[in-house]
Structures are given as structure tokens and as C-alpha cells.
Design a protein that fits this description.
With about 200 residues, the protein is α+β, with helices and mostly antiparallel strands. The chain folds into two domains: about 10-45, Orthogonal Bundle (GTP Cyclohydrolase I, Chain A, domain 1), CATH 1.10.286.10; about 55-195, GTP Cyclohydrolase I, domain 2. Helix content is about 35%, strand content about 25%. The chain contains six helices and seven strands. The chain has helices at about 10-25, 35-45, 115-120, 130-145, 155-160, 185-195, and strands at about 65, 75-85, 95-105, 105-110, 125, 145-155, 170-180. A five-stranded mixed β-sheet has the order 5-2-3-6-7, with helices on both faces. Strands 1-4 form a two-stranded antiparallel sheet. β2 (about 75-85) and β3 (about 95-105) form a beta hairpin. α3 crosses α4 (about 130-145). The chain starts with 9 loop residues before the first helix and ends with a helix.
């Protein structure tokens, strides 16, 4: 049973998996499947752990920062943050990397906090387009920077393993806020990201 702080109800997941196995004509009691419902419930607890977490909590300890020049408008870019999410349309995973950039106004945050924001928001039933926007919104709200840019590049299970089966295709989504919404500024950061992968 799920608690008020944990939305995951493992018993219901297990019952649902048993029903799915029976619905596809399998014997849920055979040795290879006997523990599958519990394993799926454990996996879903991890996949959807972000439902119980506010991503802004990871940015709450941001600090006032004063530059020796008095100018804080230098870029912070964290590249190649690995993430895993579950597509809400088919409940299949999509895996990728995130690149996060922001230009501080007055506050900065430890770099280890940025992957936690990505992980929290990704650990929910998601669409890549919404995931990108929600990460950008969290950074904008939590840090109040001059600008934010989020780029996600992911491979989707629903594209690679069903339907059109495009095993080598990936999807890129971009969300920007503030001064990083300006094409020239955004292009400069995209060049930095691209140069890193050459």
C-alpha cells in the first residue's frame, strides 16, 4: 500500500503485472515468471521515484555569489548528464543525455545538484518535450538566473523496439529561458555542446 509520502503501491503493481501476464497467454506461476511481478514493482518504484520529490528541493541551498569584478553574467554549462525516463504513452524507457546551461544573476548551486534535478523530473511518467520544459522551469524558478538552456538528446524504446523500429534515431529537444532564448546566445552554447562531441 502506498503511503502519503510514497505514491508507489507495490501490491497493485504486482497484481496488474499478474493480470498482464495472464492476458498475453502466459502462466504467471511458471519458474521464469514467478517473481516477475515483484521485480517489476521494484523497478517501478525506482522508475517513478520522482513523483514524491520536489525538484526545487535540490536547488534550495543555492548561494549568493559575488564576483571579484561584480559581474556574474558568465555561463555555467554542465554537459553529458545521463538520464533515464519512462515514456507515458507506452511505459517504455527512453535514455539519453542532458546538457544544462544557466547564466547566474545572483545565485549559484553546487554542480552535483543539477543532475539531481534532471533525475527527479525524469523519474516520472514523461514526454521528452515536457521533461525538457520542466527542467528549464525548475532551474529558472530555483536559481532566478538571467537565462537557462536545456538540451536533451534521447533514444526512445517506443521508436527503437516497436512500430517503425528506428534503432539509430534519437530525439533532440531544447528549452530556453531569459537571455538564452536569444538565437545568438543559444547558438554559442549549442556550438560548445557540439564541439565537445566532435
Amino acid at each position: 500500500m502506498a503511503s502519503s509520502t510514497d505514491p508507489i503501491d507495490s501490491a497493485r503493481i504486482e497484481a496488474a503485472v499478474l493480470e498482464i501476464l495472464a492476458a498475453i497467454g502466459e502462466d504467471p506461476s511458471r519458474p521464469g515468471l514467478a517473481t516477475t511481478p515483484q521485480r517489476v514493482a521494484q523497478a517501478y518504484t525506482e522508475f517513478f521515484a520522482g513523483l514524491a520529490v520536489d525538484p526545487l528541493d535540490h536547488l534550495a541551498d543555492s548561494q549568493e555569489f559575488t564576483s571579484t569584478t561584480g559581474d556574474l553574467s558568465e555561463l555555467v554549462l554542465l554537459r553529458d548528464i545521463e538520464f533515464r525516463s519512462i515514456c507515458e504513452h507506452h511505459l517504455l524507457p527512453f535514455l539519453g543525455i542532458a546538457h544544462l546551461a544557466y547564466i547566474p544573476r545572483r545565485r549559484i548551486v553546487g554542480l552535483g545538484r543539477l543532475p539531481r534535478v534532471v533525475e527527479t523530473i525524469a523519474s516520472r511518467p514523461q514526454l521528452q518535450e515536457r521533461l525538457t520544459e520542466e527542467i528549464a522551469d525548475a532551474l529558472q524558478t530555483g536559481l532566478d538566473p538571467l537565462g537557462v538552456l536545456v538540451v536533451l538528446d534521447a533514444v526512445h524504446g517506443c521508436v527503437t523496439s516497436r512500430g517503425v523500429r528506428q534503432a539509430r534515431s534519437s530525439t533532440v529537444t531544447i528549452a530556453s529561458r531569459g537571455v538564452l532564448s536569444e538565437p545568438v546566445n543559444r547558438a554559442e552554447i549549442m556550438a560548445l555542446i557540439g564541439a565537445h562531441h566532435e
